[in-house]
Amino acid sequence: MEFKTARRMAGMKASEIREILKVTERPEIISFAGGLPAPELFPFDEIKEVNRLVLEQDGARALQYSTTEGYKPLRDWIAMRMNKKLGTHFDCDNIMVTHGSQQALDLSGKVFLDEGDVVLCESPTYLAAISAFRAYGCEFIEIPTDDDGMIMSELEDRFEKCEKVKLVYVIPDFQNPTGRTWSAERRKQLAVLSARYGAAVIEDNPYGELRFEGDFLHSVKSFDITGNILCTGTFSKIFCPGYRIGWIAGEKEIIQKYVLVKQGTDLQCNTIAQMEISKYLELYDIDRHIEKIREVYKNRRNTAIKTMEDLFPDEAVFTRPNGGLFAWVELPCYIDARKLLEKCLEKNVAFVPGGSFFPNGGRENSFRINFSNMPEDRIVEGLTHVADCIREFMQRC
């Protein structure tokens, strides 16, 4: 049977990470592929208790429909947390709860993008954001980056030359895929340029709480001049991804537009999930839990970096992130990371080739490493195999 689908379907394809993750379900695979939290850090006992309490104390409301904006006590906590950590000035009406920050990206496409509009993004950038925005018929212009983030002179040049820029998408803290973090000055400059040229900014922040060293930096939103900047966040990396609870935050007028498009998408997020997270935050110390996560991930980051420093050839250049979940590897230009992945899979090791992180293609000589999900002994074993495969490819050429 043939169907006449929407034109947008012609440009859509399966997520490369999700396809690779199908392979990594095999227990023998050492996976550096998905951005998966360590499941042994999930607070199972506490979740059992908050589930019991929510159902006993307020079960009828927990199992009922709720508002599109989200559970108010949870939105109050999110606003308080952002104000404390990121230098914002929000209350609950600046927050809408979403199914993970990924839904916030999709809804941003609905709110802002018409066919032919331009999205400016880091090069490389988060591949699921590329998929979310591309569904609305936009084009991408990639902005070169360095260790301090987007190069602002390049960004301003694109603003000057392109009249169709509607949206700027950035991940300033421990960026996916590179692990880099923007300087405070670049954040401030982005806010100034977005105001000058009238472009909305989506500041995606799933990893900001996972800083291993150095000072927390204020958000791009904290420098906002005209209300153009929106922030996303999620409980997936600091609590449990299975709840699929995140948020979008911004000025109240624009958040109401998000409420309208979410009503046409799924009406609301899971009521009981929001109430359970809120109950957990009421009864337990989330900061202590996050500190446990940071300690484990820092040790795994250190193990990954030390192994790459010891074993990778000098021609393989990689980032050394101060937090988050990822490091980025760039190989000599003659090595195709997709072919390297095929060889590594023969040794039961997986990673994500870098080409998918560039919306306009190219840069196939790069790949992303996740260090949060594997224990340290398997990190060493897996990266040893990767190093061997890289050297084998180099000797062939």
Describe this structure in words.
- The protein has 397 residues and is α/β, with parallel strands linked by helices.
- It contains 12 helices and 14 strands.
- The chain is 43% helix and 15% strand.
- The model has no long low-confidence stretch (mean pLDDT 95).
- The strands form 3 sheets. It has an 8-stranded mixed sheet, sandwiched between helices. It has a 4-stranded antiparallel sheet with strand order 10-11-14-13. The protein has a two-stranded parallel ribbon with strand order 1-12.
Largest sheet: 8 strands, mixed
> What is the gyration radius calculated from CA atoms?
21 Å
Across the major sheet, the strand order is: 2-9-8-7-6-3-4-5
Strand content: 5-15%
- Summed over residues and divided by their number, the pLDDT gives a mean of 95
Query: What structural category arises from helix and sheet content?
Result: alpha/beta
Sequence stretches where pLDDT stays below 50 over 5 or more residues = none
N-end to C-end Cα span: 47 Å
Shape: globular
The number of strands is: 14
Q: Give the ordered list of helices and strands.
A: HEHHEHEHEEHEHEEEHHHEEHEEEH
| Number of distinct helices | 12
Which range best describes the helical content: under 10%, 10-25%, 25-40%, 40-55%, 55-70% or over 70%?
40-55%
